Amino acid sequence: FQRCKKGIFFLPQKLLIPNNNSIIVACEESGKNLFNIPNNLLQNVTKLSLKNNKITLEDHDKEILGRFINLTELHLNENNITVLYNCSFYNLKKLRTLDISNNCISTVHKAAFAGLNQLSVLNLSHNKIAQLDSDPFTSLESLRVLNLQYNFLKYFHIKSSFKLIKIVLAGNPWNCSCDLLDLQTWLTVSNVTLENESNTTCDFPNMEKISIKMAAIQPADCKTEKTSLENTVTSTAAVNLRSSALITALTPNNFTGNNGTHTAGVLGFVLSTTLLIFTAVKCPAWYHYLMSYRHRRLEENYSEMFEQEFSADMNSSPVSATSSEEPVVIFEKVHAFGDEEDGFIEDKYIDTCVNEEH
């Protein structure tokens, strides 16, 4: 008889496997309302079932799991696990089957399965995973079966070098757009078997329930979309780089010397340059308006032209005999006011209120 717990004869079986002459020690700890992994299990256990409990797989649980270096099969399904942190199963180098289905897992860290060099079957089905790529699985050189069905996956970025025998992806709300192209290509080119393919269908952009392998995703359209996105990102990065350079120039460490006036001048120049760059990038119409504005010097023949035009207008208009001298008087006032000008025009309109006061 092989004991599963210390002091308890639990499992009356001592199985000899002809291939490697190893002993299977199975422990059944399911449905016991456990919040943590028991620490009184024998360390030579090879098959451990902890399903249908309330285990969250916190640091304390990971520490206990690390003691079972002979473990080849682990069932943690139907628990309360929400996050798979890095190195959650690091010491289980002989583990071949891992079942963590039917939990509440929403986040899988990149190195969550680090150290599982012998793992061949991984079940992550019936969780709440919405974003995932192949990075957490690339280090699993022996992985052959991956079950991701019934999660919240809309896309699954996968590297072409990723190798499996079988993958299960049914029951996810797949978005058959350019984001799914690499998965579709991988499913077509590799020898992997897509289990339950008839239920592995597109939910978006249409509801026709087409298999993700058969969805019409055009690589040429995706390349165009990717190029457009890259150009937008490059343009934004250039603007950010200029802004960062100007901000760096504004830092106190970049101002040296004791001359406060010089420092204020440099600061004003940098601020005005920043404003011009921002205006040129974000508001090109305002930028051109500001750059095109300038003072114009009064032309020397302007008064003569004004006198001729004014005289022509007065001659063409009917004037009574009693007011025949008024045009001359009015012109003299205007002409006299013009001599007092400084030669620059600030506005195209003349303030008549000022003339009347003279």
TrEMBL record:
Keyword match NAD: no
LRRCT domain: residues covered: 172-223
GO MF term list: signaling receptor activity
Top-level taxonomic group: Eukaryota
InterPro entries: Cys-rich_flank_reg_C, Leu-rich_rpt, Leu-rich_rpt_typical-subtyp, LRR_dom_sf
The entry's keywords: Leucine-rich repeat, Repeat, Signal
One Pfam family recorded for the sequence: LRR_8
Any GO CC annotation of this UniProt entry: plasma membrane
Gene3D superfamilies: Ribonuclease Inhibitor
Record-level GO BP terms: positive regulation of non-canonical NF-kappaB signal transduction
Protein name: Leucine rich repeat containing 19
Native source organism of the sequence: Malurus cyaneus samueli
Phylogenetic classification of the source organism: Eukaryota, Metazoa, Chordata, Craniata, Vertebrata
